[in-house]
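Box 3.1. Reading complex inputs
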Amino acid sequence: MFKPFERIHRTTVIMLVAIQVIVLLSIWQAAPVGLIPSPLRIGEALGGLFTSSLLWDNVLVSLLLTLKALFYSVLITLVFSYLSVVPFFRPLAHFIVKCRYLTLTGLIFIFTLLTRDGSQLKLSLLVFGIVPFFTTSFLSVILQTNAQEFELCQTLGYSRWQSLYEVIVVGKADQVFEVVRQNFAIAWMMITMVEGLSMSEGGIGTLLIKYNKYNDLVHVIALQAVIFGLGLFFDHLLGRLRHWFFPYTKL
Amino acid sequence: MTIYSKGETLLQVKNISLTYDNKCILSDINFSIDDIIRPGIQQGQVVSLIGRSGIGKTQLFRILSGLQKPDKGEILVRGCPENGSPKNITRFPDSANICPSDDEPPVRSGKPWTLRPVHAGDMGVIFQNYYQFGWRTVEQSLRLAAHQNKALMGAENDAILEYAAQFDLSDVLKRYPKQLSGGQQQRVSIIQQLLKGSDFLLLDEPFSGLDVCVLDKVVSLLLKVSLSHEFKTLIIVSHDIVTTVAISDTVFILGKKNGLEGSTIVQSIDLMERGLAWQEHVQEKKAFTETIREIKACL
């Protein structure tokens, strides 16, 4: 277990993680640091949140917004990524990739002018924030395509468009799930920020901002734990879906 | 001595030269492959291209397949007769026809054909690592190839099942490439290119890394393919001299000539002329051993 590159059984991994978490929480509980609440108090707050509809209503709002943003982001990413193999569209795809260096702060006003209501504003900001990261990841997948995949297409007498369809669209379909999985954290991180811009619809970000405003650290950390847990759940779910839709990824 | 004659040219390599990174790799390569006619027998042929490692075999392989353009020269292959492609469905000895309309004898002399520049897709190419799409099952991969062959239109499924049975792959049709052994992957690659319907099959180092038992199977498989159709021409690029020569009709040796920077064809050997083609246990013949010695001296 302490040797480099040692392979350990799955059950051992689970036990290892469980023990480490318990030890960490015990140390935290035994030695509270100043204003930081103890795990037991956070646990109590979590229990309270789970039994109230407040949490679930807000989680649902955030989830719906995230899923909507993911759907549009994936759509836009795929269109520009597929087109990036056509030289005419390549600069546009690369421009989108570079857009990840932009910050949303100065652009929010422009988006407010361009959108009709708070809901649209949140969605468009999320999509604008996510697409550059999705496109960066998916373009790197395309760039790493094995040259033999195209050569096999050529030997089969495929046209270039047929090769694009077979190698990139069909061949890299499983990678779309992987790209979404790897970058889901970006969307999940941004949701709390954009929800703060239009709080009337609620959402887990709104809830977090409210608790934060009153320095209710117990509930802030409890909500962070919920966000973390949901993130892990989606990470796992997307991985599972990838294996389910594309069984060859398990081999 | 077996009676045979040579017919029209099936493939012509003219003045091929290739430079890579300011270094001449191939220089002035010329050879041609002619149709071999044996009275009363319809069969294709096996041509081997032998050379040391690093001599430029793979580059020549890629040029022959149309995947790479040479700096100079051209590859010409047999083009279609005026009224479209000749029937191009592989028939194995003692096997049922995979296409009901395939009873006509293959087109040979008398029908006009022309030589035209090779394009990627004209040749069936079997890469050294038998590359297949990892996201397609064997059956899907074979179907993709069959759809490219107009002569199989409407009979793709029958053809796939027939080939799979012939090549002992019926049980693995639903599997992905990663679930196949090396030998199965090789057979899938061969069937895929056969289904596509090319007359030419280019094989890059097909005997590389095979153990003795598998080697014998691969050899008999290639012979089976070469005997399947009049125009079926296997071009084997290899550095395994003994195995390759044993199944070949013609050998071209790629090597260095004095005064030339790049590699070129230093010798061609007509094994039919020497009575070393289409012979069982040819390796036991004295003439075979002498030929191997002669080839080694050229490398």
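In summary: Helices of chain B lie at 57-65, 138-147, 156-166, 182-196, 212-226, 241-247, 286-298.
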